Amino acid sequence: MLLALSAAAAIIGALLASFLYVLNLATNLRQHHLWLIALLPLVAVATTLVYQKVGAGAEHGNNMVIADIHDRAVVPGRTVALTYVFSLLTHLTGGSAGREGAGVAIGASLFARLARWMHFRADDRRVLTMAGVAAGFSAIFGTPFSGAFFGLEMAFVGKVSYEALVPCFIASYVANIVCRLLGITYEKVALQAPVVPSVKLIAVVLVAVVTFGVVARVFIMGIRTMKRGYSRLLGNPLLRSFVAGALVAVLLLGFGLERYAGLSTWMINAGFTGQATFFDPLAKLILTMLTLAVGLQGGEVTPLFCVGASLGGAIGILTHCDVTLLAGLGMIAIFGAAANAPFTTIALGIELFGVHGIPYFVVAALVGYFLVGSESLYPSQVIATAKSHRRRYQKRRSLNEIRRPTAPSEGVKLHSSKRPRA
Length: 422
Known about the structure:
The chain has helices spanning about 1-30, 40-55, 60-70, 80-90, 100-115, 120-140, 145-155, 165-180, 200-235, 235-255, 265-270, 280-295, 300-320, 325-340, 340-355, 360-370, 400-405, and strands at about 155, 380-385. It is mostly helical.
């Protein structure tokens, strides 16, 4: 099993290295030909049409992956090609989205397919799918340590799946090594964390991490509200996609916001160098919610990294505190809170910035985890341990089930693609 897992992780690493290479080409092409943003409404329509015809649930992205882990759905094999192509088209035309959606979906899909080809038992298939998630995250961000933890806790609230510990770490590191051998490089930033913080710094950090948790919750609820609004105002899915895509294109081109199109990773550097303003995270947050609400492919993590780093940097400038510390905390905290992934948050902080900031990473992870409540980027997550004793009745239920009735577009239709039992 471990040999097959390593081989599959190497394939994922190679495939995602090619994705990152082409993504860079698409980003450069758009930056030199801004008129491509005007094609975003057409890409939105094409995305909706193709996923309706041949997607078979793949449009649910990481929620479909989580449903597959819980044996409530099957990640379609065509997810690899669809996510690869349409994520690139989103970025080519300026959609404000991330790149981990492609990595996680491709990794999980290939590993799930491998498990079925080899006729593994249901429990082993679940573990392999989680390892695919780890490999995809690691290859996209160059963070094998936190990638492994993301695979271990992505599918649950309040649980790390120790049965998948070894497969997730092996897959994560193999995929990352292959990416690096193929020439992929990753952004590096430096964080300064004082060994003995001042009272002022402690107060600022506490206010900042609370702000990050609130922003994460606003982001999740904003996407859900926009999806419902689009559905109520425009019943035809294709018309809805065109209008919503046109709205994003008009904001980008008509208001001079082109710099917030695509990944916008310049915002991370701006946050760490003290050049970010409060307008930067606000603009990126709104454009990302509008992009993802219409169903354009890509992901949420990179935009949340950008929002968090720039927001933290702006708070640092305002309070005259260390901008690198606050930018680093923002970068990991908003994503970690939105994903209900506290261990991944801490691991990401250690991997990106070093062990000297661990006390700050722990505070940011825990505050965000509890502030986000029953919200999540991934409503298919199942509650293994409730966040408070009075909510213990929520155990073993998905966040979607807790929040029902939901809009049709929010969750995965679990009854539609039941996985065959071994």
